[in-house]
Amino acid sequence: MSIYRQMRMRHRQEIKDLLASCSGMTIPQASTYLGIDAPSLRRMAFDYQVEFQAVYGGKKTAVKVSNKLNNSENVSLPAEPWK
Were 54 and a residue from 35, 37, 47, 59 both cysteine, which residue would form a disulfide, CB within 3.0 to 4.6 Å? Predict the structure, then answer.
């Protein structure tokens, strides 16, 4: 496996772990804690399938499978820039 692909997989997993570590908070609380605006955090939670606490009712936010996130293991660049 190429180094770039390994870095990309590790980065994706680190983002998911970071979001999961804040899943006990609501999206507004987590966005303040992480320094990300709420709409961007909501989109990332949707893409990475991480549930947050709902503001009202004590439930979790809805998580659906997103086809927008590029989950392929292939390099998305036309050519690796360092070659």
Answer: 59
